[in-house]
Amino acid sequence: MPLFLPFTNFHLLCHQSRTNLGTKMATPGAYEEHLPAVPDWLNKGDNAWQMTASALVGLQSMPGLVILYASVVKKKWAVNSAFMALYAFAAVLICWVLLCYRMAFGDQLFPFWGKGAPALGQKYLARQAVLPETIHYYSDGRVESPATKPFYPMATMVYFQFTFAAITMILLAGSVLGRMNIRAWMAFVPLWLVFSYTVGAFSLWGGGFLYHWGVIDYSGGYVIHLSSGIAGFTAAYWVGPRLKSDRERFPPNNVLLMLAGAGLLWMGWSGFNGGAPYAANVPASVAVLNTNISAATSLLVWTTLDVVFFGKPSVIGAVQGMMTGLACITPGAGVVQSWAAIVMGILSGSIPWFTMMILHKKSILLQKVDDTLGVFHTHAVAGLLGGLLTGLLAEPTLCNMVLPVSGSRGAFYEFFMPLRMPENELMIGDDAVHGEEAYALWGDGEKYDPNRHGSIFGAAELTPNDHNYNHTTARGVTINL
Questions:
Q1: Transmembrane residues, as ranges (predicted)?
Q2: Which residue from 147, 359, 410, 467 puts its CA 20 to 30 A from 315's CA?
């Protein structure tokens, strides 16, 4: 019997612990009020979407571009190409949290660069996210738009922006596949991230001089695509060309796997552009739809041109058309209408096709540079094209939802006039349109302003003491009958 008591007591203790645990878990900590885990500023919907968008963009690189690169090159370069992408993804993350996030999105050091510092401590990561230099001012110094403060923690923002930095680096790698020294690549990744990517990101997104000039780059047409395309072209020049045999014949080693990587890239772009407004809002929905419309249109146009000029559709060509459509829509995804996304898809499926398939073969300069995957055409040309088209097609209402500068709009919206007067003018009438009215009657509001139009009928001589002066009107003359 004495031997049985300890087990009995142990059983009772376990039962009591389970009872207490059950009582405590009836209201999980994440749903209790006034806890540090759920501060007042946290919007769980926005936070959930932003982390989902981050995961989608991350999947574009790892495994999307890892698979794409491994399969689109010759078999002998499959492992090396995949490793270049894999290494870049890991190296960028560590550099990002140690220094580069705050160089791109921190307090201003120069008009094109932020103050580098670690983004690792909980005091920094657990507080509400803020982009401190995104405050925008009027010319007289008054605040036009306050600093962007999303409704989720800084940790979410740090990771979301990392995924953009990583994919930019990996896109650049596509220009030098098949011959770059892997050790040189390992050194190049952190150096380019620090001295190039952070400059573009801060200048346009982090509150730098291009941001304050009102340059529109919704989700990376310049920061990512133009940047990676130009940098890749430059790197390809300095690294030198592939072997002659590789340049002459460089077929993909696995077309089906290449399509799988391309599919991850396409689907992940919904997070790429859908996460750019930093919230689960209307522009995010518009951006996701426009992204897919542009990609599909561009793919179809590129494939059609292949059939017309070469007699057969190309799977590689279709993938390239998809990528140009995605790159082109990126700078304007959330600020253009969906019909404009079709226009951008048509142009991104044809102009980069022309530069790659026709112009490249005739240009001595382009022939000298061995851009393995044509990143210059698929990203630099397409990204620049998208930026220019955004400047033409950005819709005013959508711009007001996203951009810090009020009254932003594409140039086309400056050329076309609406047929109908705006509602405020319809309510007021002639005074709103012309600044004057035909005649004044009692009770019809403010009519004639002698300060603006001069005095008539002795209006200049009327004073508050005159019996015809109307105290209820801010301006004008009312005659009592």
A1: 48-70, 82-104, 158-177, 189-210, 222-240, 252-272, 278-302, 314-333, 339-359
A2: 359
Sequence-ordered list of residues with C-beta below 8 angstroms from that of 382, at least 6 positions apart, any chain: 225, 323, 324, 325, 327, 328, 348, 352
pTM summary value: 0.78
Q: Which two tokens stand for residue 241?
A: 């060309």
| pLDDT above 50: residue 7 | no
Is residue 110 helix, strand or coil? strand
Gap between the Cα atoms of 348 and 344, Å rounded = 6
CB-CB contact of 96 with 158 (8 Å): yes
Q: In the 8-state DSSP scheme, what is residue 106?
A: S
- Judge whether residue 206 has pLDDT over 60: yes
Residue 254 is encoded by which pair of tokens? 């696995």
| Residue 398 burial (C-beta neighbours within 10 Å; 0-12, 13-18, 19+) | buried
CA distance 234 to 229: 9
C-alpha 78/C-alpha 81 separation (Å) is: 5
User: Counting Cβ atoms within 10 Å, is residue 197 exposed (0-12), middle (13-18) or buried (19+)?
Assistant: buried
3 state DSSP class of 364: helix
- What digits encode the pLDDT tens for the residues 434-457? 666 666 554 455 555 555 555 544
Residue with token string 């769980």: 44
Closest C-alpha to 229, from 66, 416, 371: 371
Q: Residue 478, SS3?
A: coil
Token pair in block for residue 24: 């405590």
Cα 38 to Cα 30, 231, 280: the distances in Å are 6, 42, 18
Cβ atoms within 10 Å of 68's Cβ, excluding its own: 30
**Six token digits for residue 475:** 């301006």
The DSSP element (H or E) to which 48 belongs, if any, is helix 44-59
CA pair distance 409, 433, nearest whole angstrom: 23
**Which one, of 323, 349, 342, lies nearest residue 269 by Cα?**
323
- Beta carbons of 63 and 82 less than 8 angstroms apart: no
